[in-house]
Amino acid sequence: MYPSNILDTSLLLSAIEVGTHYYWDIAGISLHGEVFIISWLVIFLILGAAFLATSSLEQIPKGWQNFMESVLEFTTDIARNQLGESFYRPWVPFVSTLFLFIFGCNWAGALIPWKVLSLPEGELAAPTNDINTTVALALLVSLTYFYAGISKKGLGYFGRYLQPTPILLPINILEDFTKPLSLSFRLFGNTLADELTISVITLLVPLFIPLPIMGLGIFASSVQALIFSTLAAAYIAEAVE
Amino acid sequence: MEPIIAAASVIAAGLSVGLAAIGPGIGQGQAAGATVEGIARQPEAENKLRGTLLLSLAFMESLTIYGLVVSLSLLFANPFTG
User: Fold this and answer.
1) Has the ipTM of the complex gone over 0.95?
2) Distance of CA A215 to CAs A6, A116, A204, Å?
3) What is the pLDDT of residues A83-133, one digit of tens each?
4) Domain ranges in chain B?
5) Contact residues on chain A for B2, CB-CB shorter than 8 A
6) Which residues of A are less than 8 Å from B10 in CB distance?
7) Quick one: which of A24, A140, A126 has its CA closest to A91?
8) What pTM, to 2 d.p., does this model score?
9) Which of A235, A127, A190 is nearest to B66 (CA)?
10) Which of A80, A135, A221, A227 to mutate to test the interface with B (most CBs of B within 10 A)?
11) Which letter does DSSP use for residue A15 in this model?
12) 8 Å CB contact of A9 and B78
C-alpha cells in the first residue's frame, strides 16, 4: 500500500505546527520559550498602559487616563455582577488581572503577525494556545475560590459539600476537579481552534477568504477572556455566598 | 505510524468533534430562541439577557471544545503511535 511515513499526520499538515516548542533548558527544566516571550510582552504592555494612565492623575480624566478608567469600570462590572455589591471590592484586582491578561494574550496572538519573526523551533502565537498556560490560570482560580471560601467561613466552608443532601457529596467533590478542567480546556480549545482554523484556511486560500474568520477569531477571543473572568468571579461568589 | 492506527485516528478525530457538536448545537439554538422571545416580550431587559446568553452559550460551546481537544490529541499527540 502506501509507504508508512505518508500517513504521518505531522507530514500531511506540514505548514501547521502543533506541539512543537522552542525549548529553554534552565536548571534541568525545559520551558516553552515562545510562550514566555509573548506572555512577558503582554505583561509589559499591560503594566506600561497602567503606568502611563496613573503617572499623572488628574481630577478630570482625559486621554489615556480616561480610557484606562473605562477599562477598569468594565472589569469592575464583571466582578460586581457576579459577587454582588457588598462583596465584590476585594476581588476586583484578581478578576481584572485575569481578564486583561487573557484578553491581551488572545489579541496578541490574533493581531500581531508573528510569522515575520521565526524561531529555531516552534512559532510565536498566543500564549493561551499552550495548555500549560491555561491550566496554570485555571488552578489559580481554584486556589482563589478555596481561599475565598475558607477565609470567609473557616472550616464551615466544607459544609457546602453536604448541600443540598449528603447524597450529592461525590458530585460536589467531583465539581472541584471539573471546574479547573473545563476552564482550562475551554480557553485552550477556543484559542487553538481559532488559530488552527485560520492556518488551515490560509493554507487553502491565502488571500481575503481568511479575513472574516480572523474577525470572528478576534471577537471570540475577547468573549473567551470575558467568560473566563466571569466564571472566576462566579466561582468565588459561590464560595463566599 | 501503522496505517490502520492512522486511519482510525483520523476517522475518530472527525467523529469526535462532529458528534460533540450535535447536542450543544441544539442547546444553543434553544437558548438563543428563548432569549429572542424574552427580548421581544421585554425589550428593556435586553442587556441582562445578552450577558446571560453569552455566558450560557460559552458553557455549551465548551462541550464541543472537549470533543475538539480529543480530536486534536488524536491528530497531533496520538498516544497510540508507538
Assistant:
1) no
2) 34, 20, 18
3) 888 888 889 999 999 999 999 999 988 888 777 777 777 778 888 888 889
4) 16-75
5) 4
6) 9
7) A140
8) 0.83
9) A190
10) A227
11) T
12) yes
